[in-house]
Design goal:
globular; mainly alpha
């Protein structure tokens, strides 16, 4: 399973929402706790974080992600959790400004 599959599929809000739900209620609640104050759904926040990772992650971050996914039964879910966990633990924003900038740049 490749990193690109996560980055393509989970960059879409509805897919991201379902993937986070698949990670379990406790994890989904952690994402919601960071997303909701920013006026974002879990899916919108997750998709934004995934797109940001896609654009900003360097070789070291991508290699760590690949290693986290390797040999697991659910590599996409494990990879998504690997991307999200440090971001939500930091309470990082990924709000409407990020989305409007993305739309402006990429249409």
């Amino acid at each position: 399973m490749s990193i690109e599959e996560i980055l393509k599929s989970c960059a879409h809000e509805k897919v991201a929402q379902a993937a986070v739900a698949s990670l379990g209620g406790a994890f989904a609640n952690k994402v919601k706790a960071v997303a909701a104050p920013q006026g974002l759904s879990v899916g919108a926040y997750t998709a934004c974080v995934v797109r940001r990772f896609s654009m900003q992650a360097g070789p070291r971050e991508r290699q760590a992600l690949q290693q986290a996914m390797q040999g697991t039964d659910q590599p996409i879910l494990i990879g998504l959790r690997h991307i999200l966990l440090p971001v939500i633990e930091a309470g990082a924003k990924c709000g409407r400004e990020d989305e409007s900038e993305r739309l402006h740049r990429y249409g």
